[in-house]
Amino acid sequence: MTADHFPWLTAIVLLPLVASLLIPVLPDKNGKQLRWYALGVGLADFALTCYAFWKHYDPSSATFQLAESYSWVPQLGLNWAVSVDGISAPLVLLAGFVTTLSIFAAWQVDRKPRLFYFLLLVLYSAQIGVFVAQDILLLFIMWEIELVPVYLLVSIWGGQRRRYAATKFLLYTAAASIFILVAGLAMGLYGGTDITFNMAELGLKDYPLTLELLLYAGLLIAFGVKLAIFPLHTWLPDAHGEASAPVSMILAGVLLKMGGYGLIRLNLELLPEAHIYFAPILAVLGVVNIIYGAFNSFAQSNMKRRLAYSSISHMGFVLLGIASFTDVGISGAMLQMLSHGLIAAALFFLAGVTYDRTHTLAMEEMGGIGKAMPKVFALFTAASMASLALPGMSGFVSEISVFVGVATSDVYGSTFRTVTVILAAIGLILTPVYLLSMLRQVFYGVTVPPSCDISGASVAAVGTQEVVCFGTNCVLPADAVFSDAKPREVFIAACFLVLTIGIGFYPKLATQMYDAKTVAVNAGLNQSYSQIAQRNPQIYAKSLLPRFSRPEAAPVVGVIE
Fold first, then answer.
1. How many CB atoms lie within 10 A of CB 408?
2. Average pLDDT in the 36-49 region?
3. Using CA atoms, how far apart are residues 228 and 244, in angstroms rounded to an integer?
4. What are phi and psi of 271, to 5 degrees?
5. Could you give the CA distance from residue 380 to residue 386 in angstroms, rounded to a whole number?
6. 151, 349, 354, 473: which has the fewest C-beta neighbours closer than 10 Å?
7. In whole angstroms, how far apart are CA 220 and each of 38, 92, 239, 286, 344?
8. What does the pLDDT look like over 377-402, one tens digit per residue?
9. SS3 232
10. How confident is the model at residue 172 (pLDDT cuts 50, 70, 90)?
């Protein structure tokens, strides 16, 4: 078999899954060999992905590449069909990068390590499968497989309310994913006897507008839950607040991006006419996410819940970019997903590092540890600067692209654009407030020292004193010394920050992978605009929906002017 015909994507998807099946039989008593094995599998799969994309992926092409299709269940029309394009390829790389570093971050897991690393590798395989699936039923299957490892990882290795958070996550995401199945079946069965679930072929079908609107609404709910769109977001703060740091890294860095990917891949690309009607709703929801998430983040005293609401706020920019109808706006939405994946994973990792030392997530109980842990403080500060969109960081490029895309869109009225940009800018003002106040509280706030009451601790002369905890050690307050970041922890955080800064100074590092595709997707939207405007130029005359200014259409004045 030649390299050109090697099933690269199938190998990338199945390698972690097959490797996970060997974990139960590997000889290991204390989990040390298991973690090296899991890390090796993650590195091998990520290296295989990088090699396949470097040699066989052409970023200048907007078509699907590395395509593979095998008949799986022919009676149902289900095929193992996988491929990548400019929308999926960057997210596959992001998933491999974040998940591999998450495995490295889980170095101290000593409770049921076989099950823990088994679940991480299964999750690795499933999330890659979501991004490369070209068959909508295959996408649904991978989407469902991904839910099980996350549920178990949160419910077994989470905090005190882990079962509640895991159950809430499962109920929200499993119930919403039903809409993917229903929409996929409806699109596949529509149009006669030729049943197909291939996304490229589904995009060629001409659906009635009513059906298209219903399909769009259902998929918006399904992907909106995963993207944490208000009011479908409430599972996210609970899941982040209770999940361990490696799981939070994957939740924020990869799983949220599945929602944005689904909106672009299915809603935007396959249902363009329905998108014309729903796009202003997405813009409004994006603004609500930005402001609501920022205000709620500022109100949190739990560090991870503050970061979780920050993620909700940042996902609002993804919605705005998708709703912008401009090349730069959609490009900004893609870059925001990549940027936030790197930054959020770094922040949640560093939150875990801090928790290992203090055994608390309450920020008012952490004050004063900055002098004892200068490396952690420096890394946390750098990641926070990236999150608040400091120039020179990837967050700045992505958010400014979204702003420019919305402000220059010619399908919205000037008043709608102005109000949207101003309200979204409020989120930018609030972001430094809640992030910098978090840094002050955690590292330099004047409060009681972090402590916990450990009954029966094996420390001499404990008496009635509280025992200070950091990592797995418990000592008397007088002997407490908070250890700074270790080389492994510095390396993990640096990997995220180097990419964040690199994209900030040279955005083409990321944008060149998907620009051709986003331009093609937006061109398809513009073609749909023209067709609708020609059929009914007055359709938006009395609504908040986009207006059209085409030479062949009569002038339209909307109430948003």
1. 14
2. 94
3. 19
4. -125, 60
5. 10
6. 473
7. 35, 22, 21, 13, 23
8. 999 999 999 999 889 999 899 999 99
9. coil
10. very high
Nearest-10 Cα torsion for 194, 199, 204, 210? 90
Give CA 391 to chain center in angstroms: 22
Show the tokens assigned to 98: 């974040």
Cα–Cα distance for residue pair 545/458, rounded to 1 Å: 67
Of 118, 30, 160, 104, the residue nearest 353 (C-alpha): 104
**Which amino acid, residue 430?**
L
477 exposed, middle or buried (CB, 10 Å; 0-12, 13-18, 19+)?
Answer: exposed
Q: In terms of Cα–Cα distance, which of 242, 250, 240, 243 is closest to 102? A: 250
Q: Which two tokens stand for residue 209?
A: 């507008």
Average pLDDT, the chain: 84
Average pLDDT of the residues in 526-532? 73
Per-residue tokens: 300: 């949190």
- From the DSSP assignment, how many helices (H) and strands (E) are in the chain? 21, 4
Distance CA 285, CA 428 (A): 16
Q: Which helix (H) or strand (E) holds 79?
A: strand 78-84
For residue 149, pLDDT beyond 50:
yes
The most confident of the ranges 442-451, 512-521, 537-546 is 512-521
Match 């490229």 to its residue by tokens: 200
Res 548 pLDDT > 50: no
Q: What is the pLDDT of residue 371?
A: 79
Residue 365, pLDDT > 80, answer no
Dihedrals φ, ψ of 546, to 5°? -60, 145
Residue 231, pLDDT > 60, answer yes
> How far apart, in whole angstroms, are the C-alpha atoms of residue 186 and residue 180?
10
CA distance 135 to 137: 6
- In whole angstroms, give the CA distance from residue 110 to residue 156: 12
**Of 260, 274, 262, the residue nearest 311 (C-alpha):** 260
Per-residue pLDDT of 113-131, as tens digits, reads 889 999 999 999 999 999 9
Q: What is the pLDDT of residues 193-208, one digit of tens each?
A: 678 888 888 888 888 8
Structure tokens at 315: 């996902």
Q: What is the mean pLDDT of residues 158-171?
A: 89
Question: For residues 66, 72, 74 and 76, what is the CA-based torsion angle, rounded to 10 degrees?
Answer: -100
b/e per residue 333-367 (b: at least 16 CB within 10 A): bbbbbbbbbbbbbbbbbbbbbbbbbbbbbebebbb
Distance CA 358, CA 367 (A): 10
> What are the CB-based long-range contacts (under 8 Å, 24+) for 486-492?
488/104, 488/107, 489/349, 489/353, 489/376, 490/375, 490/379, 492/101, 492/104, 492/105, 492/349
Q: What is the pLDDT of residue 4?
A: 60
> What does each C-alpha distance from 186 to 66, 75, 183, 189, 278 come to in angstroms?
28, 17, 5, 5, 20
DSSP classification of residue 368: T
Alpha helices, DSSP H, located in 299-370:
303-322, 327-358
Contact 331, 518 (CB under 8 A): yes
